[in-house]
Structures are given as C-alpha cells and as structure tokens.
Amino acid sequence: MQKLILASASPRRKALLEQIGLVFEVMPSDVPESFPAEIPVRERAGELAAGKAAQIADRVASGIVIGADTVVVLDGRPLGKPDAEAQAFEMLRALSGKSHEVITAVAVIDAADGRMAQDDACTQVFFRNLSDAEIQGYIASGEPMDKAGAYGIQGKGALLVQRIEGCYTNVVGLPLVCLARLLGAFGIRAF
Amino acid sequence: MQKLILASASPRRKALLEQIGLVFEVMPSDVPESFPAEIPVRERAGELAAGKAAQIADRVASGIVIGADTVVVLDGRPLGKPDAEAQAFEMLRALSGKSHEVITAVAVIDAADGRMAQDDACTQVFFRNLSDAEIQGYIASGEPMDKAGAYGIQGKGALLVQRIEGCYTNVVGLPLVCLARLLGAFGIRAF
After folding, report:
1. pTM for this one?
2. What is the CATH number of the domain that holds B143?
3. Per the domain annotation, does A42 fall within a domain?
C-alpha cells in the first residue's frame, strides 16, 4: 500500500483519519485560503482542496496526498473564522435558530503520476435557539476563535446543534465515506 | 455545583461528557438490560435509563445521577449486541442500504431528594450499500462485537453511514443537547 499524506494542519482531520485506522503522515500545505469572491462557494472549496493536495504532491516523489477545504455557508454566504470575539458573537447570533450548510471538498492526488480524484459533501446543520448569555458562555470557553462559523461540533459546540441532515464527519472537517470512496480508486482501504 | 455521576460503564458516554467539559465520576449500574418484549422499544429504553440512574442514586447520599439506554431499531425490531461474528454479519447485512432508528433514553435523578427528569432522542441512520466483503472486513476489525446493531459510528463504523437525520451524539450513546436540557433543571451547565 502506498504512503498516505494528509496535506492539512487540522487536528480534527488528523483525528478523523485515525478514527478509521489509516496510517499516514501530516504535511500541512500553506495555500492561501483567500480566493476571488465571485467564484461560487462550492467550486472555490473544490479548487482549494485540489490546490492544497497539489502543493504537497509537488514536494514528494510518491505517495497519495489528501487535500480538503471546509466552508460554512449561511444563506449562500460563506462564514470564515472570526477575527475577534465580537465577530464570533455576530456569527453565532446569525446561526441561532436556523439551518446552514457545511461543505467539505476533498481532493486525492497520486504524487507519482499526478492523477487526481475529487468530490465534496454537504450537510445541513440546524442550530437550536441560543440566548445571548449562552453565546457569551460558549465564546468564553475559547472554542469558537479558530473555527469557520465560530463553532466546533466535535467539542462543546455539540450543545448548539439540534440536528443535522447528512454526513457528520463532513461537519467536523473530513467526510469519511466520501474520502474512502476516493481513496479506494488508489487502492487504499480502511477495511 | 453538585457532584455529577454517570451511571454507565460505556467509554463512549464518558468521552461525550468529557467533550462538553463536565466534571463527573463514573459509577456503572448493573441493571439487567433484558425487559419484557411486549413493552414498546422506546418505553423500555426510558424504563431502563430511569432504572440505571435510580440504582446508583440509591447508593449515594447526594449528587446528580445520569442514566442512559441506547437501542438500535430496524423495522420496529430492536437489535442488541451480537453474540457471535455470524450474528454481527446478519445484523450488518440487514442494515445495509436501509435506514434504521437509534433511540437513547436519558434519565437524571437528584440523589438527595429523588427528583427525576427524563427524555429521549431519536436519530435516523442511513447505511450505504455494503458488499459482503466489506462487512467481513469490518467484522475482522473487531469493532462490531460489543455494540448494539454491530457497529460504532464513532469508529470505523463511520464508513458504513451515508447520512444521518437528527442528533449525532445520540447515535454514539448520549444525546448531548437532550442531556444538557435535563441537567439545566438541576442547575448544571456546560457553559
């Protein structure tokens, strides 16, 4: 089986790959996440995932490289990582009592020959109604600041989410069923 | 804040309580999980959750005790833990390409005065189509044998699940939003 490389610094993506028992190494890409705003969100995520995988594939002689990009979309508008607590508050206030989409694009590249497979997953996430005091309490926990949409479903943010429709691991940052299908095309299987 | 006690030996429930930052101790109950089959599944889960919490509440002078019971239901029929690999195979074959329900009943009891609050959550889980070779590979990983329905969504079993509709942590074994609402009535909050 070929060497597997995760082109991401995300501890959450690392934990998801470990969850399915895959052996891999981490080589974070440094592709800038800004992108022309006129490109549709889903397409942009796909370009970024492919760009991240391609950057690392260029640096190694062989191996199967995984790139991913996750976006949180509310009413068609992408929510990035909050710059400050006030912005985290605004994001969580906007998400309260509504549903939004989380899209993760995944790209897998064989570094030896440049062959690429890619796909994405979209999950609907329904937030319960949050009081201002709850939002402030959640922000005080320190969890929102490094996360797109200002929450982490795999942490205390689980308490914000009434229900989801779709793939859970996609919301965490790496849709495992989608990824496994792509990896299968390169001969890599979890079981 | 009162002492919190988890009346369950499940490492998955322990991990979920840790995920939301609660401080607690574990005191597993030994309430038998068998129950008259003529009682509806959801009602039986509620009785078992209350019975588990009550057993531990009887043993301590004070504290807030959490009991829970999770059932996997396919076409109205509960699936327990498989007795043998052949039974795990049959269960996974039956779940393949279909949706089933996971119900977790939760009961919270104040040991000092016996006051109880309880509720449950139900999540639809949609399995993708599994080949016999995939099922055998998953069984060979050793994961199915101690789990109701013969899979664990928080492990390699994530690769079996196409999508869910509802609360994810409910499928793992403890619906956190439901639990937090019950704990709030006893003055316990995660943030």
Report:
1. 0.96
2. 3.90.950.10
3. yes
B168 backbone φψ class: left, alpha, beta (φ>0; ψ -120 to 50): alpha
Give the Cα separation of B158 and B127 in Å (integer): 10
Is there a domain that residue A190 lies in?
no
CA atoms of B79 and B113, how far apart (whole Å): 35
Six-digit token string for B87: 């039974």
Q: Which residues of A touch B184 (CB under 8 A)?
A: none
Q: What is the pLDDT of residues A94-122, one digit of tens each?
A: 999 999 999 999 999 999 999 999 999 99
A2: Cα separation from own chain's centroid: 24
Candidate from B154, B156, B191 with C-beta closest to A190: B156
Interface of A with B in 85-114 (CB under 8 A): none
Residue from B96, B163, B167, B171 to probe the interface with A (highest A Cβ count within 10 Å): B163
Domain hosting residue B74, numbered range: 4-184
The total number of structural domains in chain B stands at 1
pLDDT in tens, B98-140: 999 999 999 999 999 999 999 999 999 999 999 999 999 999 9
Q: How distant is the Cα of A111 from the closest Cα of chain B, in angstroms?
A: 25
Whether A16 is in a domain gets the answer yes
ipTM over 0.90: yes
